[in-house]
Design a protein that fits this description.
Rossmann fold; single chain; alpha/beta
């Protein structure tokens, strides 16, 4: 089976696809990942084939790239920005390239990350099945309960309708097509709520950590003093949000903990000033390897970070900034696995108080381990491969025949 993956050029969007691609490759199937030219190095770092497609941009510099409107501050207007970028501009630019690639490569199946919409359009045009991988906490959930982006499927209807008309596809006003054959979720059904409306073809699967081949923790991590280790990170896109890392460091640097902070490869640790011996500022670390050594993680609430913490059984303090992070923070609070520091209260004092609470109240760790058990009980990579093989053999349906 030949499987073509499509993904927006962002590390956070790529990571959910890597375990799926690796599982297929381990089963003897041929895989390739389509994304922006500048993203090639990120894909090839995992030993996977990259094919250039679409607008050449990277999520890290999207605010300065002339192809997009300026990124708005956190708030309701951010939803319109997401739709413009992901369902609008990038979809329009990638579909012609994917059509040419699919004509040459002849895939049996297309698998897309949930916020990349060109792959499913091309699959329909080519008459093959497609699957989506949940890369955030809300893309496939169409419910008023998702308050931050209420029904992302509804929001993208206009943009998707434009693309469908452009390529001669029949109307799909309820946006059923992107999830018609298979939708892979790597959180348990309890996470969003058992009764939350989902695509009919949703399957819940075990989370698998994504690690670059050869990634290793530095020796000093194994030699920190015997006291609680707190890890803090704002991911790869929002790590320069003004004042947030500074508040985390200021709030926790005098606490009786080992504080490890990854600041991103685009920042200099020296800009944060001198730190006491218990504070370690580094550009990056292999997060899944570090988490089992931690008693607490302070995070922006990115979907991958939340999944990795839950899978490792580590409670959190969530400091959401924008995108899906407020929704992920809501879910963390609802399950009792984290304290949330709201946007308007991101002070050093608030972060310190939240960290002390999570470190001293055993309920947070107990709740996290309950979710961890739910995640680990789900089917693993072998089942993922079977689902994708089955999807590739399904009769292809048109939008008019889908329910």
């Amino acid at each position: 089976m030949r499987t073509l993956f499509t993904v927006q050029p962002s590390i956070g969007h790529l990571h959910p696809l890597i375990p799926v691609a690796n599982a297929l490759a381990a089963a003897g199937h041929e895989v390739a990942i389509c994304s922006a030219t500048s993203f090639r190095c990120e894909v090839e770092a995992f030993g996977l084939t990259h094919i250039d497609a679409g607008l050449d941009w990277l999520a890290e510099d999207m605010s300065t790239w002339g192809a997009f409107p300026a990124m708005p501050p956190p708030g309701p207007q951010f939803a319109a920005f997401v739709v413009t970028v992901f369902a609008g501009i990038t979809t329009e630019r990638i579909v012609p390239d994917l059509l040419a690639i699919a004509g040459d490569w002849e895939p049996d199946l297309i698998v897309r990350e949930g916020m990349e919409y060109g792959g499913c359009i091309v699959a329909e045009l080519q008459g093959i099945a497609h699957a989506s991988v949940a890369g955030n906490g809300y893309a496939a959930v169409d419910s008023p309960q998702v308050r931050y982006f209420p029904g992302i499927r509804s929001l993208v209807a206009e943009a998707m309708g434009h693309h469908r008309a452009r390529f001669g596809l029949p109307p799909d006003p309820n946006v059923l097509m992107p999830y018609r054959y298979l939708h892979l979720c790597f959180t348990p059904p309890q996470w969003d709520g058992i009764d939350v409306p989902r695509p009919a073809n949703s399957h819940f699967l075990r989370h698998t950590d994504t690690l670059r081949p050869g990634a290793q923790l530095p020796a000093w991590v194994r030699q920190v003093p015997d006291r609680p280790t707190v890890y803090a990170s704002l991911g790869t896109v929002f790590n320069k949000t003004p004042g947030v890392l500074e508040a985390i460091i200021q709030g926790l640097r005098e606490e009786p903990v080992n504080l490890i902070v990854t600041i991103g490869s685009d920042q200099d640790p020296a800009r944060f000033g001198p730190q006491p011996p218990n504070v370690h500022l580094v550009t990056s670390l292999p997060q899944p390897q570090l988490l089992p050594r931690c008693q607490l993680v302070v995070t922006h609430g990115g979907f991958n970070s939340v999944k990795e913490c839950l899978s490792a059984g580590v409670p959190m303090v969530v400091v959401p900034i924008t995108a899906d992070q407020p929704y992920n923070a809501e879910r963390c609070a609802a399950h009792g696995v984290a304290r949330v520091v709201a946007t308007g209260g991101r002070t050093a004092e608030a972060i310190r108080e939240a960290a002390r609470d999570v470190l001293t109240d055993p309920c947070y760790r107990q709740n996290t381990r309950r979710v961890q058990e739910q995640m680990h009980a789900l089917p693993g990579p072998t089942h993922v491969v079977k689902l994708l093989e089955t999807a590739a053999r399904q009769p292809v349906r048109t939008a008019q025949s889908a329910r």
